[in-house]
Amino acid sequence: MDKLLHKLGGIIKGSIEGFDRIVFKGILRPIAYAAGMQVFLRGRGVLNKNYKDWVTEQSAAIIETANQYCRENCGMAIQYIPSCHERKEELAHIQQKKAGIESGLIGVWSCVESCSTYRSTYDAAAGCPQLRSENSRCKHLYFYCDHPDYGFKSIRLQTWSPYSIQIALNGREWLRRSLDKEKCACLVHGNKVLHIEDYGLAQRLLDSQIDTRWEKMLTGFLKDVFPTMTQTLGPGMTYTWTLWQSEWAKDYLFESPQALNTCKDDFLRHAMMTGTSDRVLRYMGRPVDANGQPHPLANPELMTRVNLWQDGLRYPSLGG
Questions:
Q1: How many CB atoms lie under 10 A from the CB of residue 205?
Q2: pLDDT (tens digit, 9 = 90+) per residue, 145-178?
Q3: What single DSSP character describes residue 29?
Q4: Cα–chain-centroid distance for residue 35?
Q5: How many domains are contained in the chain?
Q6: Strand pairing of 79-80 and 104-123?
Q7: Could you read off the pLDDT of 286-302 as tens digits, one per residue?
Q8: Is residue 284 part of a domain?
């Protein structure tokens, strides 16, 4: 039995456990390395020296179809973000609230960001241009929507070869949509579940997420964000998916704020004592070394600390 439920079962009305944030990355393995890209271009009748012209043309087609998709589904063009440090998800939430979008595409944003791609350079040994891997920058497209089955989700597509893609879902958003279909009342605030009419049903729905046919689901998202895929890459190219990030969370829902207040101090003390710096860094997506110490590239610095404040009284001064 859950120790916390055993100890505090009298003031906890329910608990759920399952996926929170889930992020998948997709790569096209045949063109994920320079030699493979050269073989692909040869099959398409494209010379290595013409690689840049070819990939520029494909990128323009991807952006144009995305712009058309955005206009047709939310009445506006792709919105350009000048800084890669801008939080796109916050912009999407603001747009969703402003437009009152409950389901469907929220918007598409574009931003020039770092990427892994290729460059055609002359190779003296080969006597002709060859493709070389390089770190560069190109335009990325961010698609945000509130899916009728999976809730709020995002897709990030690199518009330059090798067209890597990233899809982010949220298990709690997914649960919300599933509960709606089951006509089970629930109260949510952002990503937090505050009340569920049937906790047993909610847990069964969360458990069923594990059995999802992930490849079929993820591939199904491509038709809207990368409709030119067959035109660009041919009919035989498919993505290989990797679970890049996953968060598994357990939520305890208390009877009332007053019930939680009776043990809140103990929870906070436990969190501060066990929430060590390496755990905080990992949670925030910052790099740590093998010993759990902050990596030199972990910037800005994150710190945790506990302060003890003495209670007292303050008397106002009386003017003469």
A1: 22
A2: 999 999 999 999 999 999 999 999 999 999 999 9
A3: G
A4: 30
A5: 1
A6: parallel
A7: 777 777 777 776 665 66
A8: no
